[in-house]
Amino acid sequence: MPAVLRKRRSRHSPSTxxxxxxxxxxxxxxxQVCMLCHRTxxxxxxxxxKRMKFKLCxxxxxxxxxxxxxxxxxxxxxxxxxxxxxxxxxxxKSCFICYKMGASIxxxxxxxxxxxxxxxxxxxxxxxxxxxxxxxFCWEHRPQQAVHARPSQDNTCSICLDTVENRISxxxxxxxxxxxxxxxxxxxxxxxxxxxxxxxCPCCLNQEPFMMEMLTMGIRLSKxxxxxxxxxxxxxxxxxxxxxxxETCLCPGGREHAEEEG
Length: 262
Prior knowledge:
Distance between the termini: 70 Å
Number of helices: 6
CATH topology of the largest domain: Herpes Virus-1
Structural class: alpha+beta
């Protein structure tokens, strides 16, 4: 059977969420370089974890998003020969963001030949879609949100409460349902991975249209239960949470300060 016909349909599956990848599947030395992005360290929210198979060390999402690679039925196994061929071809291509060789991802827009490494995608404002056909787009051809900021909009992130841009952009996103919520891309990505199957708009709580919009815009989801459910399971009933968990606590009295009333 010709190589181009070997189980390609798995890459075009209609699934709406990516795998959870909560644990590293294989033991890989920390100094081992991914053969697709050429990094020893990379953001696991973007690239996933490194794994070793048949002497090939790759991040799981570097492999899924690499142009010309098509997974088998379980969306995890790849033909070794195909992977080696893609690595060889990528060695001839330069990343348009960092200008280094070995770029294995090509923009999915017909006629566009921009290539890049997966860890470089945020710096180049590229969108990589972690579902369906696992398509990737450069800054020029990436999907755009149709949400428009209202004149009276409070320009704060609905998640971290820090300032956001007064317009929708790559770094500032919005809810397509209520059109009120604004959030940083990094903030909504962290929320998506923590919320799992409970992922929804932090303001209007819309789920399905909101989730599909975020997937299209390159936010990676997981199929696991919300991370806070496991925390609640070991927390004694009726015990009140008494500590600020914000990344930067602004309370003058510290993280554990509380008023006598309220």
